TrEMBL record:
Tagged with keyword Hydrolase: yes
Domain of life: Bacteria
UniProt cross-references to InterPro entries, sorted A to Z: Alkaline_phosphatase_core_sf, Sulfatase, Sulfatase_N
The keyword Cytoplasm is annotated on this UniProt entry: no
GO MF entry, a single one: arylsulfatase activity
Similarity annotation: Belongs to the sulfatase family.
Name recorded for this polypeptide: Sulfatase N-terminal domain-containing protein
Pfam families: Sulfatase
Residue span(s) of domain Sulfatase N-terminal: 6-406
Alphabetical keyword list: Hydrolase
């Protein structure tokens, strides 16, 4: 790998919808730095996450494979790694070194094997945070609570250096919490006493309140501080680097610093999209997914929903400020003109739309349509427009980066080089794969440039939406007797792609 190879920086948020930015049409958003990136680069207007929840979506982004093929079909399943097999208590430390184990390479593995220095700052979420400590996963909260990770900084899934956060809101563990304890002991002690939970904005929402962590100590600020420190340390290093910056916001709990809230709590926000009649056309399988009161806003006041959106905007504003700081550091260190820069997220949040809140394993456009901004260095400039409406998936990120960095794409990657695809055909149909604990609620979706079709295989129910005429998905066109012909065409295409992509072999162990 030559010294002229491009650096790669992925800035990744958690649970951020497409319509949350000024550059995507949100008039209430204050996101000047992210909007500036969109003006400099390409805004993909139809970027679709491979899953509606964290772990499978993140695994797809970093492996270029859909959830079954990555080995992470749903939350709570670790991305396959050979090193975890001997650690498992059932294997009693047996040496598996001579056994051919499946090992799904990540983008960090790929770039690291081709001369890149690799680093992750913030949230990754490639192993379960609530796993028993005996499994010894690096992102399990229990292993941080007992001090086992205090001096650990990787390697981890190809990242040579790691500075980690676990969790959300003001209960974040990992390297961040160790730093907070050492530098802001009074705040850390107040959090341990639970004082942050005594300031609920609305009693019906137990995980939304003004934060007690000030701006200078907030996790988003710390993540940017550590990313900038990494960039500063590399000013005399000519080797290319891959830096993954994972912000845990704006995921629930919604706990923006109190001093930010005056900017947003007086602002108007777009009202939630809801038509009470829409539920009569939804599949029964979709309805079952959201019966839990944890997701329903039926008991919420309009003021509570408005504040959910205001608090979310405040958290995104803080992310934007820190994106600006990271970009400024790249520029000051003369690294910006050699860096591929991506801004994206893993999935969205209902935020009151359809009478729901948070996210889960049922496809909805507000959950899978997320921002994706690609800014290329001048040396890689090509004739690209400022916006691309062709659908793309987060499985397409690995092959696209590999092509730009001129490194081989590993076998098994299912995504495609999205820039080449756009230049040559302009057609692409990504999938969304949602595998839950109940077979009846498993659902697979396909997107083209206009429509979304969702299929529940066990119940054979379908959803079909025309986003050109029904952008908020209030009218399921597959619920009546006259199902549009396009729905049948997309269904056949979904079946073909599902057969092609469903290879759940990544975690298999074989002794022959």
């Amino acid at each position: 790998m030559s010294a002229t190879s491009p650096n790669v920086v992925i800035i990744h948020t958690d649970q951020q919808r497409y319509d949350s930015l000024g550059c995507t049409g949100n008039d209430q958003a204050i996101t000047p730095h992210i909007d500036s990136l969109a003006r400099e680069g390409v805004l993909f207007k139809r970027h679709i996450a491979a899953s509606t929840v964290c772990m499978p979506s993140r695994a797809s982004l970093l492996t270029g494979r859909y959830p079954l093929a990555s080995g992470v079909p749903t939350n709570g399943v670790a991305l396959p790694r050979a090193s975890y097999i001997s650690k498992h208590p059932l294997n009693k430390g047996r040496d598996w070194s001579r056994v051919p184990l499946s090992h799904t390479p990540t983008l960090a593995d790929i770039l690291g094997a081709n001369g890149y220095t690799t680093c992750s700052i913030g949230k990754l979420h490639l192993t379960p945070t609530q796993a028993p400590p005996a499994l010894d996963y690096e992102e399990t909260v229990a292993t941080w609570n007992n001090g086992a990770r205090d001096n650990w900084h990787g390697p981890y899934y190809g990242f040579q250096h790691v500075e980690m956060t676990l969790g959300h809101g003001e209960n974040i563990k990992g390297h961040y919490r160790l730093w907070l304890q050492a530098t802001h002991s009074a705040i850390s002690e107040a959090l341990q006493r639970g004082e942050h939970r005594k300031r609920l904005a609305f009693p019906e929402i137990s995980d939304m309140y003004p934060g007690i962590i000030p701006l200078e100590a907030h996790p988003s600020t710390w993540i940017a501080d550590r990313a900038i420190a990494y960039l500063n340390e590399r000013t005399n290093d000519v080797s290319p680097f891959f830096l993954f910056v994972g912000f845990p916001d704006p995921h629930f709990p919604l706990t923006p610093p109190a001093e930010l809230l005056a900017l947003f709590t007086q602002n108007e926000v777009a009202p939630p999209q809801l038509d009470e009649r829409e539920w009569s056309s939804k599949p029964a399988s979709f309805t079952r997914l959201w019966q839990n009161s944890f997701f329903s806003t039926r008991s919420y006041s309009p003021a509570a929903i408005r504040m959910v959106r205001q608090y979310t905007q405040a958290m995104i504003y803080l992310i934007d400020q820190n994106v600006g700081r990271i970009v400024a550091a790249l520029q000051q260190n003369k690294q910006y003109e050699q860096t591929i820069l991506i801004f994206t997220s893993d999935h969205g949040d209902f935020l009151g739309d359809h009478g729901l809140i948070r996210k889960g394993l049922g496809c909805s456009d507000v959950l899978v349509h997320v921002p994706f901004i690609l800014r290329l260095p001048p040396a890689l400039s090509m004739s690209l427009p400022g916006e691309i409406s062709m659908p793309m998936s987060n499985v397409d990120v690995v092959p696209t980066i590999c092509a730009l960095a001129k490194v081989p794409t590993p076998a098994g990657v299912q995504g495609q080089n999205i820039l080449s695809l756009w230049q040559n055909t302009g057609r692409h149909c990504p999938l969304v794969c949602c595998y839950g604990s109940s077979p009846e609620t498993t659902n697979i979706s396909i997107y083209d440039e206009r429509y979304r079709l969702t299929w529940y295989p066990v119940t054979r129910e379908k959803e079909f939406y025309d986003h050109w005429h029904d952008p908020h998905e209030l009218h399921n066109l597959a619920s009546g007797n006259q199902v549009p012909a396009k729905a049948h065409i997309l269904f056949l295409q979904l079946l073909e792609l599902l057969a092609e992509y469903s290879h759940p072999v990544s975690a298999r162990i074989a002794e022959f």
